[in-house]
Amino acid sequence: MKVIIRQTKAEASVWAARYIASKINEKAAQTDKPFVLGLPTGSTPIDTYQELIRMNKAGEVSFKNVITFNMDEYVGIAEDHPESYHSFMYNNLFNHIDIPRENIHILNGNAADLKKECADYEKAILAAGGIDLFLGGVGEDGHIAFNEPFSSLKSRTRVVTLTQDTIEVNSRFFGGDTSLVPKQAMSVGVGTVCDSKEVLILSFSEKKARATQAAIEGPMTHVITLSALQMHENGIVVLDEGAASLLSEENKAYFKAVEEAEA
User: Fold this and answer.
1) Is domain 2-262 annotated with CATH 3.40.1130.10?
2) pLDDT category, 166, cuts 50, 70, 90?
3) pTM for this structure?
4) Kind and range of the H or E element at 239?
5) Contact by Cβ (8 Å): 237, 41
6) Which residue among 73, 141, 195, 240 is the active-site one?
7) Is 143 a residue of the active site?
8) Is 148 a catalytic residue?
9) What CA–CA distances, in Å, run from 215 to 147, 220, 221?
10) I need a labelling partner for 212 at 20 to 30 A (CA). Which of 92, 101, 110, 139 fits?
11) Catalytic residue selected from 47, 51, 117, 143
């Protein structure tokens, strides 16, 4: 696992955006096959999306040959609901870049057969050639996507029941009313994410420090689903100083030394 530490969320987000853009451009220079990108929602990736938008408008990266698959979607709310993940993605990224609409994939939380929708999503990822890079965030309890604690580390796309902690955290998007937060969601699995050629996880603020420390320095465990990244050959975690605050000073020095050596 590679760990990148920056002083602020803004600096870490810019690093992540430029890394993603470099990978898109690198593949475009080698082949006409599309770059397949996994994407998250929530407040964590917004600064990264803003930098990608800036880069796209400046002509530094194009999304014309990029296919995207989002991590998750709530069950039972309309796609045009202001807090649906469809709305989030279009408002915060897709409406501002040159990606063809037919290249965008987001789970349908109102599908007649949710199990089939999940199975078809996995098939669509395979048909696209697999995900080149999956961008994600981490919850305060160490979960990635909606793979809550005790999710199988080999899990695939499925319907999940949200924990009370996640409902309470997400209630900020629903006026603070936990009763308005959907109790179920559809989510790619830990196994789905880890099948990607690269995985890049963002973790910002002291609120994420405990989960970050457990995932990086602790054992691999289904209690902290981010810890599955320990087994990935190309896993990267990008932190600000707050999220890195509980890591040992020895390990932080090591991560910084590795980055400098590879620069």
Assistant:
1) no
2) confident
3) 0.95
4) strand 235-240
5) no
6) 141
7) yes
8) yes
9) 14, 7, 8
10) 92
11) 143
